[in-house]
Design goal:
Structural class: mainly alpha
Distance between the termini: 34 Å
Strand content: 5-15%
Radius of gyration: 20 Å
Shape: elongated
Helix content: 40-55%
Number of domains: 2
């Protein structure tokens, strides 16, 4: 898709170019992004190179130019942050009963599980997933540390949560030290 867009780039306005990139490239990167959690760095780097090429195409930058300033100007998250974004939105939907029941019933805060409530671990905000095949709610499930600040996780409006989450991930991705 990038090559085809590149071939017609001169006949497009900047807004039309961005619209095409978002519709044909970025959506493909974001599709099922939450399933990519935990994949190898090599695969993430390959996906990041596609995103970098799209950013270079928008600004007519050379391949040798660094893409971090371009991504920052476009306000695009890096691929690893995109995966976190999709995963946290899915978890938010599960916690607020806005997801299918088969997903929501699998995730529980550690404070909701009787066997873990008294543990020191329960003071941290962790999500636990029941292991496959286990019917007990106190089973030793897989725990996910919620590294997003608590105020962002307690927002009940999905749009407000997404805005706050993107801001947090954008700041983490593009730390303004320079």
């Amino acid at each position: 898709m990038l090559r085809q867009i590149c071939s017609v780039r001169r006949s497009l306005t900047p807004d039309a170019l961005l619209t095409l990139l978002r519709a044909l490239v970025i959506t493909k990167l974001d599709c099922c992004c939450s399933t990519l959690a935990g994949v190898s760095g090599t695969l993430l780097q390959r996906l990041q190179s596609v995103l970098n090429a799209a950013a270079r195409l928008v600004y007519s930058a050379r391949r040798s130019e660094h893409t971090t300033p371009l991504l920052r100007q476009l306000h695009w998250l890096k691929v690893s942050e995109r995966i976190k974004f999709r995963l946290y939105v899915l978890v938010h939907r599960c916690l607020h009963n806005k997801s299918p029941p088969y997903l929501a019933e699998k995730l529980h805060l550690t404070t909701e599980i009787d066997a873990r409530r008294r543990l020191r671990l329960a003071s941290r905000q962790l999500l636990c997933r029941q292991p496959a095949g286990s019917r007990s709610t106190s089973g030793s499930g897989v725990c996910l540390k919620l590294s997003v600040p608590l105020s962002d996780r307690t927002v009940s409006s999905l749009n407000a949560f997404r805005d706050d989450l993107k801001t947090v991930l954008f700041r983490a991705s593009f730390d303004d030290r320079t």
